[in-house]
């Protein structure tokens, strides 16, 4: 008897549904957006776009903006042979917080001040 | 390889494809003959994409069950094969080949991918402690060569484990060859079951004696 090792999650999250809904295009009614599944370890998901007549920079930019609004980064791959587009949505890499920049600035200014004080004292002697 | 019916002699005649040289057409015919000789090939369809100037793609829709040896046969039939990709979800086998006029100096890239640690959600409780290491390794390789989740099951038997994989994305045959070679002491058969849309890997248990090891085919160099 077979025993399951891992069962692929096919349920769309709210985030996926929101993006899919926003990707629908009234000017391109035949376009079909489907869910392609989650990536290993749940690090993002993929969407498949079919029945596209043409694809322009405007379309891809719009898709990127929609996905970015959900805090995700997108990688768009077009298969010219099948006419399908694959969109991989992955969480954005965490940016360095401004607080760490601030602490670096404070340390550097303190160091600069100390060097200046030592230089002044040296010249006074 | 599935045993071909001795009475069956496939005759393949391709209508002249625009953009395909006679040698390329012959290769397409030969591939079809090889695949047609396998059981369950009566429903397959062929599509040749030859629009590009340097390469053409042979797409076989609904091929029969094939094993690693069958795939290796195809690789050996033409030195200009760029890649063989298998899409089990769509029951498709795609063979990308350089056109006759193109030199095959551009050698195929060496298969390279990073292994991916088996995520926490994977249940390997049915696997014996002695076999966990190599089954985990095979899974790490399958996870590394793909990006999307897939469903996997294990059918344990007294001598083997049958790893069944479904809903897997397109697999590069070179990567598969690498895994089979890496775990040649454990992987006894690899079946691409297109009708069932499954990849089946038979993995030997550590306490079962080795009967056969899949040897890597070595290139023969002719010295004049």
Keywords:
heterodimer, A: Alpha-Beta Plaits, 3 helices, B: Threonyl-tRNA Synthetase, Chain A, domain 2, Threonyl-tRNA Synthetase, Chain A, domain 2, five-stranded antiparallel sheet, 4 helices, elongated
What this model shows, in words?
- The complex is a heterodimer of chains A (125) and B (224).
- Chain A is 40% helix and 26% strand.
- Chain A is α+β, with helices and mostly antiparallel strands.
- Chain A folds into two domains: 14-91, Alpha-Beta Plaits (2-Layer Sandwich); 95-125.
- In chain A, strands 2-3-5-4 form a four-stranded antiparallel β-sheet, covered by helices on one side.
- The model of chain A has no long low-confidence stretch (mean pLDDT 88).
- Chain B has two domains: 22-98, Threonyl-tRNA Synthetase, Chain A, domain 2 (2-Layer Sandwich), CATH 3.30.980; 110-215, Threonyl-tRNA Synthetase, Chain A, domain 2, CATH 3.30.980.
- Chain B contains four helices and ten strands.
- Chain B starts with 21 loop residues before the first helix and ends in a 20-residue tail after the last strand.
- The model of chain B has no long low-confidence stretch (mean pLDDT 86).
- The A-B interface holds A 1-9, 36-42, 46, 81, 88 and B 49, 57, 116, 119, 121-124, 126, 139, 143, 146-156, 162-164, 166-167.
- Strand 1 of chain A pairs antiparallel with strand 6 of chain B.
């Amino acid at each position: 008897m077979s025993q399951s090792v891992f069962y692929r999650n096919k349920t769309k999250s709210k985030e996926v549904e929101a993006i899919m809904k926003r990707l629908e295009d009234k000017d391109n009614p035949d376009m079909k957006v489907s869910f392609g599944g989650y990536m290993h370890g749940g690090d993002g998901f993929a969407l498949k776009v079919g029945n596209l007549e043409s694809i322009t920079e405007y379309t891809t930019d719009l898709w990127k903006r929609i996905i970015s609004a959900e805090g995700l980064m997108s990688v768009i791959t077009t298969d010219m042979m099948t006419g399908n587009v694959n969109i991989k949505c992955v969480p954005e890499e965490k940016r360095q917080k401004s607080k760490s920049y601030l602490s670096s600035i404070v340390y550097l200014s303190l160091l600069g001040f100390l060097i200046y004080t030592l230089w002044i004292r040296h010249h006074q002697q | 390889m599935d045993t071909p019916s001795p009475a069956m002699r496939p005759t393949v005649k391709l209508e002249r494809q625009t953009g395909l040289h006679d040698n390329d057409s012959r290769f397409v015919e030969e591939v079809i003959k090889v695949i047609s000789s396998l059981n369950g090939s009566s429903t397959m369809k062929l599509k040749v994409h030859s629009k590009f100037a340097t390469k053409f793609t042979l797409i076989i829709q609904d091929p029969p069950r094939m094993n690693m040896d069958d795939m290796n046969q195809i690789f050996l039939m033409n030195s200009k094969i760029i890649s063989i990709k298998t899409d089990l979800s769509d029951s498709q086998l795609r063979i990308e080949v350089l056109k006759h006029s193109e030199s095959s100096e551009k050698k195929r890239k060496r298969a390279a991918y990073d292994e991916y640690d088996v995520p926490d959600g994977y249940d390997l409780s049915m696997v014996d402690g002695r076999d966990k290491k190599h089954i985990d390794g095979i899974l790490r390789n399958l996870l590394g060569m793909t990006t999307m989740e897939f469903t996997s099951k294990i059918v344990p038997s007294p001598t083997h484990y049958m790893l069944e994989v479904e809903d897997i994305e397109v697999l590069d045959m070179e990567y598969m060859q690498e895994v089979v070679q890496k775990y040649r002491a454990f992987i006894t058969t690899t079946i691409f079951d297109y009708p069932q849309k499954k990849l089946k890997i038979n993995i030997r248990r550590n306490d079962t004696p080795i009967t056969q090891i899949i040897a890597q085919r070595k290139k023969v160099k002719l010295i004049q």
